[in-house]
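Notes from hallway chat w/ T.B., transcribed later so I don't forget. T.B. wanted the structure written out for a chain they're using in a teaching module, and asked if we could keep both sequence and structure tokens in one place. Agreed to drop them here.
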Amino acid sequence: MSSLFILLFVLFFFSILSNFHLAKSQRSSVIGDTIDTNKYVSIASTIVSSNGNFEMGFFTAGNNSNYYIGIWYKKLSKQTVIWVANRETPISIYEMDFAQFKISDGNLVLLNGTRQIIWSTNITFASNLNKSQVVATLLDDGNLVVRDGDSNVSANHLWRSFDHPSHTFMPGSKFGYNKRTGMKQVLTSWKNANDPSPGPFTHEVDMEKYAGQGVIKWNHSVIYWNSGPWTGNNFTGVPYQPNPMFNYTYVNNDDEVYFRYDFFNPSLISNFIMDVNGQTKQLLWMDSIQDWNVFYTDPKQVCDVFGYCGAFGTCNDQVNASSTCGCLVGFKPKFEKDWKLNSFSSGCTRRTSLNCGDAGEKDKFWMHKNMRLPANGESVRAENEVKCESLCLENCDCVGYAYDIGKYGCLIWKGEMLNLEQLSQDNVNGSTIYVRLAASEFSTNQDANQNQTSNKLKVAIPIGVIAALLFLSCFAFIYYRKRRSSKVKESATKSIRQNAEGEGMELIDIQDDDKGNIDVPFFSFESILVATDDFSEQNKLGQGGFGPVYKGIFPGGREIAVKRLSSLSGQGINEFKNEVMLIARLQHRNLVRLLGYCIQSNEKILLYEYMANKSLDTFIFDRRRGVILDWRKRFEIIEGIAKGLLYLHHDSRLRIIHRDLKTSNILLDEELNPKISDFGLARVVEGKITQANTNKVVGTYGYMAPEYAIDGLFSIKSDVFSFGIVILEIISGRRNTGFFHQEEESNLLGHAWRLWTEDRAMDLVDQSLHESCNKEEAIKCLNIGLLCVQEDPKDRPNTSSIIMMLGSENIVSLPRPNQPAFMTRKCGGGNTSSSSNVKSDGVSNNQLTVTIEMGR
């Protein structure tokens, strides 16, 4: 009987599943864009907005078997949900045959499988309203509105989904706070990528501490980011200027405070989300990759998100970190499933319970160095570190302590440790903390070590004699090799010193304390001589402004590009150290990777990943090789360079201004993907600063922005100017400085501007591209290039705007450029003059260093 019962149960279960899948497969029924008393949404039906932009119905997220009612983009290949009704009350798979989303008693309600209301709009009605006429309509902007069926769709609504967002802030909606009703829009993250239920992070307008500014909170309590006050154009805490693709509005009056954004080009698809990782992100849909592109994020680093790795979790966003989040020693992820989905806020739990106050071995403390101290430390009085430890050990609620007599004295933590971050060894803000663990966490490891030691002692005596003989043999061999290596090194150094003295050069070494700050390996000069065959001409890849580049073959057959800085390059020890320490901390697919360095006497050498196709200029300025780069590849290269710049200007931990962006500094890998290189002139600027000045102007003539060349002012906008030149050179296949037209213009900018004003943009395109060229994309790129080289830096777009414009399909909506800088115009009498032409012979008091433009 029991076997029969089990068999019947299994058959019943599978019959339910088969019916469910049948119902799910029939979800092709669209019942229009409106729900009324006679139409409702079920597992087999949806509603779609009038122009087909958005769809609403039941959905599941990832491998989650629960069902939710939501709104998503209809036309996109990747399902993107923008609103969820029943985030806290999902419907199980077994109830879906009977679930309904319908109008009931004037309200929009969600009924589960037993026909119970689990979600409702909860509208309060005027006495004269006929509830039987209430309908719900999905609009083409993604807004679900409940209204009187007799009124116009655009008239006053009884309820709007835009007023009750889930995790997405849509264009055209308000994000703010109603001062009279107390209603506010709060974006709440999903729990993880497969679970729409509310997560721990919220984005909202704060009226108490920050007076109408946007803030991000953890657990509705801890504010870890704020937008800063509104300046009239943007928020001070948001590090980008108003975008030419958007129209931004901020209102703060007696009735309400809100922020909204709209598109100048309505065909663009974008949204703003509170992501599962605690960052707010602005997304733009890219048809070219059929996916979302992130062009704005705050906070910039996930380790700045409060509680990102949860209780007893450590955050590590250093380049060499194997994972962003990890657990402290003695802890493990609380929910492994969440961690596999990159949702770490659930944190870590102890492997072994503490033994405070019980009989047995007392708890101990595990030391963690170079840590950012956890949040909510409690200061207690302790004469020394021993007393601090004792105070924590005697308190069963205490889970850890830190002691620094010069900074904070004794700090203890109770309950949970949150916001831990593992810092680099050279970070002066790092502290040592001691985390409480059960004694067994120590004894397990220590006992193992002691057992290994005990076993080793049993065989140590007979092995010792053999080991001693081997040691003596090895010592003799090492001594011989070291003597030989020393002679080779001494000979090489002597030769270098003789050459240096003959040329009057200064001999410099990086000090040991500098080497400690460099996160890439040091290579010996002898190993580089061997790898490059003594810098032979056969291994020479090219000659850059700062010296020759060679191909090196290192042990294991690994190919590396070896950049040997010339004594005549103008790049001294400071520039060299700058490039090594700076690029070692950068990691992006469109930035070249530094593999190592060497400095000995006057030799300064950088080792990069080998780029088989050398630099971009060797293609676009060579008629024979230029045909390899068709229009599609050139457009991808432009996009790749823009993404690399976006990382430098906004997304990297350090805000970096390159100052020498040009086609010869764009390297191409085996698949012709672009990588920005040569960071010797790059400058790091603090925090949200986007501009600085210098007394020494360095860079390449023809690529420098006028405010930099003349006044020494460099900024992210001076990099944008250089990028504009690069775009025009990629399109035309001509050098800006090498271009000369006897009758009209003396540079490429002037020529491009004239063709633009004469509506002859396609005449600028390289002849080799005419067959493969997409005309609209080419005109768009010329438009963007001219926007980048406008004379006033304020008029130039920032890199996030450039990314959006490159992804836009509607070129009509792009801003019209003003006259570019560095444009030579024809004047009366056949002479030429320039409103902002820079020469290298004393236009300003700045020292203009012009690097030589040559192929690699």
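Follow-up for T.B.: Confidence is low (pLDDT under 50) at residues 7-27, 447-463, 484-516, 823-856. Might be a good example for the class.
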